[in-house]
Amino acid sequence: MRPLTFSDDEGNEQRWLPGGPRSALDAFGEFLDQRLDGESDCASLRIEDEENEEALVLLLDEEAFCRVKGGRNPRTEYRLISSKNDYRNLLVNFVRAGFAALDRFGPWLPETDGPAGLARARLRVTFDGSVLRATHPRELRRRLDVLTRVDGHEPTTTDGVTHLGFGNGSGDTVNAWLTADGSALVVTFDRTSRLHSPGDAEADTDAQAALYEGVPEDLLVLVRNASAADTTLHVPHPDGGTLVAATGVFHLSGPCAMADGLVTRLQEARLEIEDTGVGRLLEGFLTLRDFTPGTVGESAPWWSAEDITRGFAATAASEQGRSATAPLDQGEVDRFCKIWADSGYNDRWDVHYVFFDGRTREQAGDAREELLRLIEALGLDGVDAPPGAATGEMWVRTDPRIDNELGLWS
């Protein structure tokens, strides 16, 4: 432990020394309570280790922390506070061991991102709590298949890519392109959204292209010069050709995420995820615990009962026509489960198995190479790890055949 200084942006300061009757955390908690007593307008509080030129700054308005290292040309990085435990853990670890002890709580945003970066990060955290993020791609595909047929269309597959789409009778649509390797691009188009500006065609063309920034190229090509469909509106692309019009762009090359361009646009325009139309147009169907003709009819009065019944029946017939899945090799299943028990867990949505969290490729070692082989042998969907994940971290979509076995290993 070392001497620390507490301060706020109003000039108040308090010194804490090791060996006293109160811990540094308790002393800072009291200092914080005094700042939040209703009479103070302070926006930040600082814990500083002057000797080592390190500081941790609590940004009250942004609900974030900033860590600082160095007196001249300091290294400054930001991180959102996602929970009370997050807040306490950061404080405790900084008090105990300083700047470096906070590495394990990354990723930290560089100073160049500043408040804008925090706003974008908060949008991503908000989306992580969304229904779309929590829906397994397998179930997402099934429901989109039903809704496509209910809307009077047939799923179309070209070169291993299946297009699904439906509308609400008012010109608003949901479209999805799903590839053979399990990745997907979901696009919403809400005519009432502030992300749609039909009055300025040139500006809207540039803005539409910008929404797709950050989408992996193999998915982006699916909406460039796409085949015409009743559920897609094509707009000119600044570089020539066309682009599918959107107010929401979500890709599943890894865990479902908003496109970087969409996040930036929402942040710059001070809009929320609801402005993409994803809640109104899609998530209402995903929240239905019982996805049946009756519940869909209650949620979508623009479709007739006959249309809905026909769509469900057509999907059921299509599913029955698919070949049965070959049984899995029990030895390979056991080995997969053993690696999960040793170094994995299910994410909080039960959509992915996460392996080697926080480990580099070197730290994951031979087990990572074996896991790659098992994923292919078992026919599982391995996906890209989220941005900022350690180099050895691996994400695999959950599979009911594996889930049935994992109970024996947990």
Can you walk me through this structure?
This protein is an alpha+beta fold. The protein has 3 domains: 4-112, no CATH class; 128-320, no CATH class; 330-406, Endonuclease I-creI (Roll), CATH 3.10.28. It is 38% helix and 20% strand. The protein is built from 15 helices and 19 strands. A 7-stranded antiparallel β-sheet has the order 2-1-3-4-5-6-7. The longest helix has 16 residues, at 305-320. The two termini are 39 Å apart. The model has no long low-confidence stretch (mean pLDDT 90).
Summarize the model shown:
With 410 residues, this protein is an alpha+beta fold.
User: What does the main sheet amount to?
Assistant: 7 strands, antiparallel
Percentage of residues in helical conformation: 25-40%
How many beta-strand elements? 19
Q: Could you say which overall geometry the principal axes of the C-alpha atoms support?
A: globular
**What's the tally of helices?**
15
Give the number of domains: 3
Structural class: alpha+beta
Radius of gyration: 25 Å
Pfam families: DUF6357 (PF19884)
Region (Disordered): 1-21
